Amino acid sequence: SQQGEEDPQALSIQEGENATMNCSYKTSINNLQWYRQNSGRGLVHLILIRSNEREKHSGRLRVTLDTSKKSSSLLITASRAADTASYFCATVEYNNNDMRFGAGTRLTVKP
Amino acid sequence: ETGVTQTPRHLVMGMTNKKSLKCEQHLGHNAMYWYKQSAKKPLELMFVYNFKEQTENNSVPSRFSPECPNSSHLFLHLHTLQPEDSALYLCASSQGQDYSNQPQHFGDGTRLSIL
After folding, report:
1. Which of B1, B5, B40, B43 to mutate to test the interface with A (most CBs of A within 10 A)?
2. Which residues from chain A sit within 8 angstroms of residue B2, using beta carbons?
3. Do residue B45 and residue A99 have CB atoms under 8 angstroms apart?
């Protein structure tokens, strides 16, 4: 069953702009992960943020987690055409080892 | 190259056929997973193996039968599938005893079409 829900479902921006994607979830979590999927390929792990963390960075990526609002955001700064992909959040529930994915945000970065 | 290799990349089969999907990881991981990705639906976890033992089976129909002979290999045996089973089947692996707190590494999937 689905846990995270990404918002928006689709996002189209110009190269150089920032892209923000949001994820909301319903239950208490152990950690939340963001993945990227290029068309016809598998998922690639981007960032894992634990429930006791509020923000993590990796290169041009910034992830925030607000457990009181049960939400997370992924910010991609200075986007590039190569960032065009689908982005998924996945949550691992507290006391449950299963990872549940959302339906994803389709990001298009126009050159 | 993700370190997780899935074969075949594409498979077309009739509803009465028997086929197998193969996954191999070269990352030294202990946990392996099968997921189903259908169009416009979230990724669905099917099976989890940790140290060759099945730890999760998310109410998957018996026409899907997993096999994990060792920590590096995972199979999904298929028989008498239905048209709604057409999807991208993804294999993943992760490290450690506490595998749910580790990132997962995915293969590029097998695109399965049921005629």
Report:
1. B43
2. 42, 44
3. yes
pLDDT tens-digit profile, chain A (111 residues): 456 788 899 999 999 999 999 999 998 999 999 999 999 899 999 999 999 999 999 999 999 999 999 999 999 999 999 999 999 999 998 877 778 899 899 999 999
Residue with tokens 């976890």: B45
Q: Strand, helix or coil at B34?
A: strand
Residue A6's H or E segment, with its range, is strand A5-7
Decide: residue A55, CB within 10 A, 0-12 exposed, 13-18 middle, 19+ buried.
Answer: exposed
Q: How far is the C-alpha of A77 from the C-alpha of A16, rounded, in Å? A: 8
Token output for A70: 């049960």
Q: Which of B11, B41, B6 is nearest to B26 (CA)?
A: B6
Long-range contacts of B46-53 (CB under 8 A, 24+ apart): B46/B76, B47/B76, B48/A97, B48/A98, B48/B99, B49/B74, B50/B97, B50/B99
Number of alpha carbons in the 13 Å side-chain half-sphere of residue B64: 20
| Segment (H or E) for B70 | strand B64-70
CA distance A81 to A108: 8
